[in-house]
């Protein structure tokens, strides 16, 4: 079987991570955190995850002309994601995410989009062969045109939640939301499009609907939670890859839940993105 071809249109960031005993409440300062930086951005995370899970991946994004750019692209380059359509902005810096992570693995994230906000129609290929994965950390107009130019499966991760034109939602073949996003858009509304809709439930797994009816549910294998950053992006990539490879709904959803479970066992977004082998080991019942 040839590797599925996926184009990802989305954000590229550098994640600045503070890891402490607990997350601060509003107005509170929590001392004693450890600092690290990692490549990130929902688009880049999903592109790298899909690549590590076996897809041929092209990334469409925008970075700044600054020192953060190479750090943000480092792991994409290392895993041979095609960066032909990544543009360098001369007017905006590389996007940055400020992430606080507790010992329990929960996080709070504040994003300064920088060059991601400049991703434009001229940055897109005229035709997108194969599948598309996109999110909403770049301009929605660019995402909408990318969806129209795609001749294969269109997967939209409706994150972060925001008002979206109906035409874009109708163009998608697969919509992926977490519980917060499902509440924002309305679960019944999403199901009314008669497309595939995946609802993630954190540690409780996920549910997959098709044409308005539930077709599969899965719970993640038990793992030790270190950092949940990037787990949702891993799920998005894994579900898309599995469906493109022809897996049925149940197997595709289990594969995606296992990939997300593997991702929470390692600190950082992109450093935690699992290989195909590590996900298959979890599915075979090997401990992590």
Descriptive notes:
With 288 residues, this protein is of the alpha/beta class. It has one domain: Ribokinase (UDP-N-acetylmuramoyl-L-alanine:D-glutamate ligase), CATH 3.40.1190. Helix content is 30%, strand content 27%. The chain has a 9-stranded mixed β-sheet with strand order 5-4-1-8-9-10-11-12-13, with helices on both faces. α8 (249-263) packs across α9 (276-283). The model has no long low-confidence stretch (mean pLDDT 93).
Question: What's this, in brief?
Answer:
This protein is α/β, with parallel strands linked by helices and 288 residues long. It is 30% helix and 27% strand. Strands 5-4-1-8-9-10-11-12-13 form a nine-stranded mixed beta sheet, with helices on both faces.
Topology:
Layout: E1 5-9, E2 13-19, E3 34-40, H1 42-52, E4 56-64, H2 67-78, E5 82-89, E6 95-101, E7 107-112, E8 131-134, H3 140-148, E9 154-157, H4 166-171, E10 174-178, H5 179-185, H6 187-191, E11 196-200, E12 206-210, E13 213-218, H7 231-244, H8 249-263, H9 276-283
Parallel strand pairs: 1-4, 1-8, 2-6, 4-5, 8-9, 9-10, 10-11
Antiparallel strand pairs: 2-3, 6-7, 11-12, 12-13
The main β sheet shows up as: 9 strands, mixed
Helix-residue proportion: 25-40%
Radius of gyration: 18 Å
Can you name the CATH architecture? 3-Layer(aba) Sandwich
Q: How is the CATH topology named? A: UDP-N-acetylmuramoyl-L-alanine:D-glutamate ligase
- The CATH homologous superfamily is termed Ribokinase
Described by the principal axes of the CA atoms, the overall outline is globular
Say how many strands there are.
Answer: 13
- Give me the number of helical elements: 9
Nearest-integer average pLDDT? 93
Identify the strand order in the major beta sheet. Answer: 5-4-1-8-9-10-11-12-13
End-to-end separation in angstroms reads: 28 Å
CATH C-level label: Alpha Beta
Give start-end ranges of low-pLDDT stretches: none
Q: Could you say which structural class the secondary elements and strand pairing correspond to?
A: alpha/beta
Strand and helix order: EEEHEHEEEEHEHEHHEEEHHH
What is the count of structural domains?
1
β content, as a range?
25-35%
